[in-house]
Each structure stands twice: as C-alpha cells, then as structure tokens.
Inverse folding.
C-alpha cells in the first residue's frame, strides 16, 4: 500500500562535502514555494546515536532542534532554507536505527526470527520514512543519504531506498563533481560516470544528476554525462560555484529542477513565490554598507563549527543590506601572548563571543569581552559568551578577585558560574545537557525586550552551567542587568549593560532559529548596532 507521500532521494558520489545538503535544502525551498508540504530526512552513516558527542573540529557544528536533539549541521540548512522546525525523526544515524532494531529484538518483537540487515533493518528504515511522512502530513519526503556511494557504511541505507522505490514513487538524484584539470582545461566527466556505475551496481538508477563544478557545465559536458549515465540532457544539472549559498535555489530554478521533479513524481506544477528570497539574495550580493565583526573562539580554523552563527549574521546583513566581514580571533593566541587584544580588536565594529567548552581559550575570550565593555564596542555573547561576560564583570567591576566558572577553575573562591544542580548527578555524556527550546521572560524597559518586541520568548539551549544565584545580587548592584529569566525566575537567560552601545548576552543559542527571511532579533540588533 502506497503511503500517499512522494519521495526524492539524493545520493552522493566522487567526494564528500559536495553540498548535497544545500542542494536538497534548495530544492525543498523551491517545492515549498509552490505550496507543497515538505519534510527532510538526513541519514548519517556513523555509529554515534547522535552528533552531540562529536568534536566540532571533526564534524562541524552540533545543531540543536526544538525537541532538544543534537543533530548533524545539515539539519540547520534544512531548517533555514525550508523555514521549518524539525524533530529528531529527521536525522537517522546507524546508531539510532540499530538501537531501535536491537531494542525491538530484546523485547521479543521478532520472536522466532533471525534478525537481519535485510529485511529487518531496511524494513525499519522504510517504516521510519513512511511514518514521518504520515505524522507530518508531508506531500514530499526528501531523503539525503550521507557519505559517498561505494562506502561500506551507507550500503544498508541505499538498499532501503532501493526497496522503497519498488513500493513508492521515488525520484533519485545523484550528486557528483565535475573537475577541470588545469593543464587540459576541460570539464572531466569520468568520475561522474564511474560513480553512477557504482550506484547502478546497488540497483539504483539515478533520474537526475546534479554536477558540482567551478564554472557552469558546458552543453557538451552535459551531453556526454547524459549519454553515459542514461539521464535526459535537461536532467543533468549544473551546480556551479556561487558566492552565497542562498543563490543555489535560484540556480536550480533557472534549470527547471523543481518543475521537472514534480512532473516525474506526477505532481502538478503550481505558481511559486520566490520574490522575497530573490530580494534577500540581491541585498547579499549588492550590500550598501559594510561592518567588520570579530568572532572569538578556539575552533576558528574550522569555520564549520560556527556555521549557524555565520548564517545568522548573513541573515541580519541581508536584511539590513550590509556586508558582514568576519575577523577570526583565535583566543588561545591572546592567552599565550602571541596576539595582543588591542591588535586583535582595534579595527572591528563588533565582537561576538560564541559558545564553547572547557578552559582552553577562555581567558582570551574574557579579555575580548573586557575590551568590548571598556571601549563601548557592540558585544554579543552566546551561551559560554554570557557565562564569560559574567566572569569578566564579577572580576573587573564587582572586584571579586579570581571569580570564575567552575568549568574553568573548580577551586575558584567565587564560582559565579556553576554547574546546574540537576546536572551534578549525571555521569553519561550523551544527550544529558540542558537542551532544546526553553522559554524566557524578558524584563520591561530592557534592550532585549525591545529587540524581541514581546515578553515571552523561546530559544534553544545546550549547556550544563548557569549563573550562580548566590551572585546575582552583587552583579546587579554593580549595574549588570539580567534582562531575561526562566519562567520560575531561577535561571538568568539574558544580560545587558544599560549604558553601553550594545552589550548583550544570552545563555541560549539564538543562531539556531535565525532564518534568511526572519533573522533572529539578537543578531539583527547586534549588526544594526555595529553599523551605527
Ligand atoms: N560550556 C558551557 C556549558 O556547558 C557553555 C556551553 C555552550 O556554550 N554551548 O554550560
């Protein structure tokens, strides 16, 4: 029995990191703009149950959803492009699906059977895809299979979608790379041909091929790929390099990708609304103003670990017609004297201190916060950024010598930031932080209240530590304002310094909820302040 939804499956070949996720997000945007209900699923073939325990240096940012699940950063792109709030069911990992099958086996759900990859794991996967379609009422399910065809790791997932295609309407898109060898100067199609051959060996015949390349594909390249890979020439799509990722839907629209996908799935082409998106992209490409913002951190050499922050700044910039130039400050360099804080920050219009963990680089961040506060430079602190702003204020304004977070110095005489009481008993590391959407009440006549324009807001969280209630009184007496608190008033969620141009921090991660056409108010306010 068909489930009622249609499926688009995107696989990858040749190389990892080609931007399958951006392709599928962009296609999703185009389908959504035609009034179709879309739900994406990202499949990550790693054995971790979720991305929460992975180092951002290895795997990029850990993205957090409303429901508190810690997921692959591609889900961030899905949410941004599709303007949807997803749930944990949109991210499948090997760990998650095996855990599910093993739990069922232990319960006796397969009693008497030999539990096997095929049909039990593939069956469980197909049920997952269909259930999510049903639960969300989606017209089209977009499935992205992580990794590259030929990997051992993702074979079972490829098999599940092959089986699915026997039972449902499935459209397969394969994403490859078309390189140009400098000396030859020709777009080479062999890697695409070979990776399509490998996919065919798995029983999957792609219906469309999305070719990443530096320059647009030449007609003769398209023709060659079409002939060797068995897809119509207009279904060989040119995914050439663009400056801003938000241009990708427009590149696909030029080539009728969404229109053809709908046609092949037997769905009607409908009128679309991409005008606001186009305007946003236009602003990004031709900004009228420019600001330079410092990002202080310790993963600055892997920008993927801060991707949502970069996107949120881009959303604010796009809506304010302002180019946001970034200056990466490695705070360990400040700590060990390689770089002075003045040299690092003297030419910037604003300073952003993002989230982080552990003591390395923390003193450098505290120095940057002090510089922002003393020199009246706009400052935005996110999560660890709020915690370190409290440490800085306690030390340098309240005179609490050696005040610290117990994450950095467990023996500090003034633990102004301390572990959440309910966290003290927890030993397991996976999915045990304070996670996901949490409400906050914003105080009247504060800057954050003005930014959000309402009293009750919700932002996503991911942390173990908090402002220690014992120190709230002394911090406030010395001029720090906790402008947003949890509904029970116990947790300090936002802070600001009233006389400063813009000194705002939050225990939350507002970057996770920023969308191109609906930039998060914290980022919008911050970039505006940097422009003034
Ligand atoms: N390390 C801090 C905590 O666990 C901050 C976490 C973060 O910035 N996401 O509370």
């Amino acid at each position: 029995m068909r489930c009622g939804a249609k499926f688009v499956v995107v696989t990858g070949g040749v190389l990892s990191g080609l931007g399958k996720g951006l392709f599928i997000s962009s296609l999703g945007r185009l389908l959504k703009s035609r009034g179709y209900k879309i739900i994406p699923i990202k499949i990550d073939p790693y054995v971790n149950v979720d991305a929460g325990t992975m180092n951002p240096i290895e795997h990029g940012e850990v993205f957090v959803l409303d429901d508190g699940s810690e997921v692959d950063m591609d889900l961030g792109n899905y949410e941004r492009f599709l303007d949807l709030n997803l749930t944990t069911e949109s991210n499948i990992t090997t760990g998650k699906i095996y855990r599910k099958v093993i739990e069922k086996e232990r319960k006796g759900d397969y009693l008497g059977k030999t539990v096997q990859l095929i049909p039990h794991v593939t069956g469980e996967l197909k049920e997952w895809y269909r259930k999510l379609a049903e639960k969300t009422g989606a017209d089209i399910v977009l499935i992205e299979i992580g990794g590259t065809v030929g990997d051992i790791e993702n074979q079972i997932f490829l098999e599940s979608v092959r089986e699915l295609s026997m039972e449902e309407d499935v459209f397969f898109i394969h994403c490859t790379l078309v390189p140009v060898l400098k000396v030859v100067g020709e777009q080479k199609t062999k890697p695409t041909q070979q990776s399509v051959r490998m996919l065919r060996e798995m029983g999957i015949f792609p219906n469309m091929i999305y070719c990443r390349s530096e320059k647009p594909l030449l007609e003769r390249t398209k023709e060659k790929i079409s002939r060797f890979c068995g897809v119509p020439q207009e279904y060989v799509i040119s995914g050439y390099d663009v400056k801003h990722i938000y241009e990708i839907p427009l590149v696909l629209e030029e080539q009728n990708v969404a229109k053809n996908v709908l046609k092949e799935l037997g769905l009607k082409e409908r009128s679309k609304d991409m005008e606001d998106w186009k305007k946003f992209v236009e602003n990004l490409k031709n900004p009228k103003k420019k600001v330079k913002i410092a990002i202080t951190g310790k993963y600055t050499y892997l920008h993927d670990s801060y991707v949502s922050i970069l996107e949120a700044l881009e959303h604010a910039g796009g809506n304010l017609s302002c180019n946001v130039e970034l200056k990466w400050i490695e705070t360990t360099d400040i700590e060990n004297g390689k770089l002075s804080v003045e040299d690092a920050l003297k030419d910037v219009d604003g300073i952003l201190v993002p989230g982080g963990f552990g003591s390395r680089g923390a003193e450098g961040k505290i120095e940057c916060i002090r510089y922002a506060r003393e020199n009246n430079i706009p400052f935005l602190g996110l999560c660890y950024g709020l915690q370190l702003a409290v440490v800085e204020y306690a030390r340098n304004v309240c005179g609490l010598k050696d005040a610290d977070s117990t994450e950095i110095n467990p023996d500090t005489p003034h633990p102004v930031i301390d572990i959440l009481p309910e966290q003290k008993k927890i030993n397991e590391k996976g999915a045990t932080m304070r996670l996901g959407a949490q409400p906050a009440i914003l105080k009247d006549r504060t800057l954050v209240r003005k930014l959000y324009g309402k009293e009750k807001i919700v932002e996503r969280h991911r942390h173990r530590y908090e402002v220690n209630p014992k120190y709230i009184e002394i911090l406030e007496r010395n001029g720090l304002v906790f402008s947003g608190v949890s509904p029970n008033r116990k947790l300090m969620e936002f802070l600001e310094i009233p006389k400063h141009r813009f000194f705002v921090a939050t225990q939350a991660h507002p970057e996770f909820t920023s969308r191109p056409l609906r930039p998060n108010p914290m980022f919008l306010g911050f970039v505006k302040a940097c422009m003034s």
Observations:
- The mean pLDDT is 93.
- The longest helix spans residues 117-136.
- Residues 355-357, 383-384, 407, 462-465 surround glutamine (CB under 6 Å).
- The two ends are 60 Å apart (CA to CA).
